[in-house]
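Why do we care about 3D structure at all? Because function follows from shape, and shape follows, mostly, from sequence. That is the central idea of this module. The next example makes it concrete: a single protein chain, its amino acid sequence, and then its structure expressed as tokens.
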Amino acid sequence: MPNIFCTVDDKHIPLYRILWVSQVPHFCGHEDCDHEGEYEVRLEMDESIWVSTQNERDHVLRSLEAWQTGQDPGPDLGYSGS
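And the structure:
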């Protein structure tokens, strides 16, 4: 049975809080932006968490799909977060 949590960085995020995951890295062009090139994982309550690599983003997507289908998420393919 799949886990209800997804590990992102050092945080255990409840999957039911995730609204969407960006397909492409963030780019806004602001000089003071701390998240250029990272993927946004949008949470409820107008919050976001950020992942740095496509592998981390794919880990979140696999976890969501496994949670929804009731299947095992499979290997993390290079992601060392969980």
